What we know:
Blueprint: H1 2-30, E1 32-37, E2 42-47, E3 52-57, H2 67-96
Antiparallel strand pairs: 1-2, 2-3
Helix pairs in contact: 1-2
Amino acid sequence: MSGxxxxxxxxxxxREMMGKAKEMQAELVKETATGVAGAGMVTATVNGLGxxxxxxxxxxxxDPNDPEMLADLTIAAVADARxxxxxxxxxxxREMTGGVDLSSLGIDxxxxx
Length: 113
């Protein structure tokens, strides 16, 4: 019978973890991270879902003779912002799991975030 009890405890814990993950997902929508490129020539802001919600260009970044530079800086700023928001997600995931790295156990909650 102890095997069934352990299984029920595991299922209960999994449900609690799923509930916490949903709460965290709702919190993450409110989070933002800002990335920069070209020493601040381009600034990109993403929300907790990784969606681009803001983009700013310094006048010096807009060179009609070099549109590729602006494109490259934009891509770099967005990538920087997404890396930062992913770091925030990982920190929140560690908080939720009590510091346990579930990915090392083959468990990926990333799709829930």
